[in-house]
Design a protein that fits this description.
Membrane topology: Multi-pass membrane protein
Subcellular location: Cell membrane; Membrane
Keywords: Ammonia transport, Membrane, Signal, Transmembrane, Transmembrane helix, Transport
InterPro entries: Ammonium/urea_transptr, Ammonium_transpt, Ammonium_transpt_CS, NH4_transpt_AmtB-like_dom
Radius of gyration: 27 Å
Shape: globular
Order of helices and strands: HHHEEHHHHHHHHHHHHHH
Largest sheet: 2 strands, antiparallel
Structural class: mainly alpha
Oligomer: single chain
Strand order of the largest sheet: 1-2
Pfam families: Ammonium_transp
Strand content: under 5%
Distance between the termini: 106 Å
Number of helices: 17
Length: 500
């Protein structure tokens, strides 16, 4: 068979034919591409992953060394090592408990009990590996589940560590450890589930789109049932619409009320009101406060779970609210007491950090600044006038700063989320046409915020009282008067923070 070389016209014909085949192939690929894209699972963005891991490290720094130094500097020399050990040991123990069952109880479906608590489906991190992902607050965006796991672990670590400041210098180390083990199990994990266990945005959007596409009454009924199932499988406060961006209720009100209950039930320090109990090192306290401020950027901006404009908003809000609160406390104290103090400005900074926490990714910067300016005078009033009037010994003002500041922040969030005040507005993932924009209603939102505050106060307050009594019966809460006078550094740990 003889091969005949094509003529010029033949080459043109072959070229046209080739282009036609290629065009048909491209058209077929283009038709298949959307289906393929729709079927492809979202992949974590490397920038989001990096930010979440950095944020986790920053939040850990808030506990050790930040909180440990902040609290340690405020106690007397003979109890410095005791406070440092308590905070460090709590961080370590809660990290173990979180890994074994805490993460599962807080962030999995609890079946018929899922409004109240998760299950044990991910106990011992079953099914959690380098390939599993967790949802964020954006459609189509995920992060590695291990990144989410460790980020939330750092929150579980610092929350019970906050409590010990209320009854510092007068509780046995063994009692602290047993109480915290029980408290995170029965108080923290449930409240974290109530507030932060939400439906994945992609699941809500998919169910809403299916409902919109349903053609007949039967299909619409089935699609609506599916949507209700997805949106209903959440913590009960999340389902009620309560907003807590980074832990106003879950962390600060929760720890603050538990601290107050402990301070009252354990009783006052020996010699309280009769002996000088001044902080032994404001230098250490200032270092701790500064570490808290820096670490809090991970706490608040990290709570957006990704790196975008809202992350920047939370970062800026954390900065301006803290600056405003530190300055506000300093000026108020200066006006009332005649002198501006280092302890005052450090306390104000912490109060501002506490107040902006629930609002950090929801308010605008000016709203956050106002929140910071307001919270300090209120907290100052509670740690001085109210505490003195009622006579309770909240040694390091856990209730006056964290609980009161957290309440102001939680209620303020319901106001400042309003777009008319510079807030980001309400997110509605069932709204598939308006960029998830929801409708803000002041009365509805404030009712949800009040519900979250009251529920946290009651569950943590009553539950903590029961747990303190259990610990007191089992091993006793207080050391002897002689041990307390000698100092917990020696009596509990056999060492001193300082050897001169």
């Amino acid at each position: 068979m003889t091969f005949k070389r094509p003529t010029s016209a033949g080459w043109v014909t072959l070229a046209i034919a080739g282009l036609c085949v290629a065009g048909l192939a491209d058209m077929a690929f283009a038709e298949d591409a959307p289906a393929a894209a729709a079927a492809a699972a979202p992949v974590p963005n490397k920038g989001d992953v990096a930010w979440m891991l950095v944020s986790s490290a920053l939040v850990l720094m808030m506990s050790v060394p930040g909180l440990a130094l902040f609290y340690g500097g405020l106690v007397r020399t003979k109890n410095m090592a005791s406070v440092l050990t308590q905070v460090f040991a709590i961080v370590a123990m809660v990290g173990v408990v979180w890994t074994l069952y805490g993460y599962s109880l807080a962030f999995t479906d609890g079946g018929s009990m899922t409004s109240w608590i998760g299950g044990f489906g991910k106990a011992f991190l079953k099914g959690v590996d380098a390939n599993s992902t967790a949802a964020t607050f954006s459609n189509g965006v995920v992060i590695p589940e291990l990144a989410y796991f460790v980020f939330q672990m750092t929150f579980a670590m610092i929350t019970p560590a906050l409590i010990v400041g209320a009854f510092a210098e007068r509780i046995k180390f063994s009692a602290v450890m047993l109480f915290v083990l029980l408290w995170v199990t029965f108080i923290y994990f449930p409240i974290a589930h109530w507030v932060w266990y939400i439906a994945a945005p992609d699941d809500v959007a998919a169910a809403a789109k299916a409902l919109a596409a349903a053609g007949d009454a039967a299909a619409k009924t089935a699609a609506q049932a599916k949507l209700d199932e997805v949106t209903g499988a959440v913590g009960w406060l999340a389902g009620a619409g309560a907003l807590d961006f980074a832990g106003g209720t879950v962390v600060h009100i929760n720890a603050g009320i538990a601290g107050l209950v402990g301070a009252v039930l354990i009783g006052k320090r020996t010699g309280y009101g009769k002996e000088l109990m001044a902080p032994h090192s404001l230098t250490m306290t200032m270092i701790g406060a500064a570490l808290l401020w820096v670490g809090w950027f991970g706490f608040n901006a990290g709570s957006n779970l990704e790196s975008n404009g809202v992350t920047a908003l939370a970062f800026v809000n954390t900065m301006v609210a803290t600056a405003g609160a530190a300055l506000s406390w300093l000026l108020c104290e200066w006006a009332v007491k005649g002198k501006p103090s280092l302890l005052g400005i450090c306390s104000g900074a912490v109060a501002g950090l506490v107040a902006v926490t629930p609002a950090s990714g929801l308010a605008g910067p000016i709203g956050a600044l106002v929140l910071g300016l307001i919270v300090s005078p209120v907290c100052l009033f509670f740690v001085s006038t109210v505490k003195n009037a009622l006579g309770y010994d909240d040694a390091l003002d856990v209730f006056g700063v964290h609980c009161i500041g957290g309440i102001i922040g939680a209620l303020g969030t319901g106001i400042l989320v309003n777009p008319a005040l510079g807030g980001v507005g309400i997110t509605d993932y069932t709204n598939i046409t308006g960029n998830n924009a929801g409708t803000y209603d002041f009365a509805t939102q404030m009712l949800a915020q009040i519900k979250a505050v009251v529920a946290t106060l009651v569950w943590s307050g009553v539950g903590s009282a029961i747990l303190y009594k259990v610990v007191d019966v089992v091993i006793g809460l207080r050391p002897t008067v002689e041990q307390e006078r000698e100092g917990l550094d020696i009596t509990d740990h056999g060492e001193r923070a300082y050897n001169y």
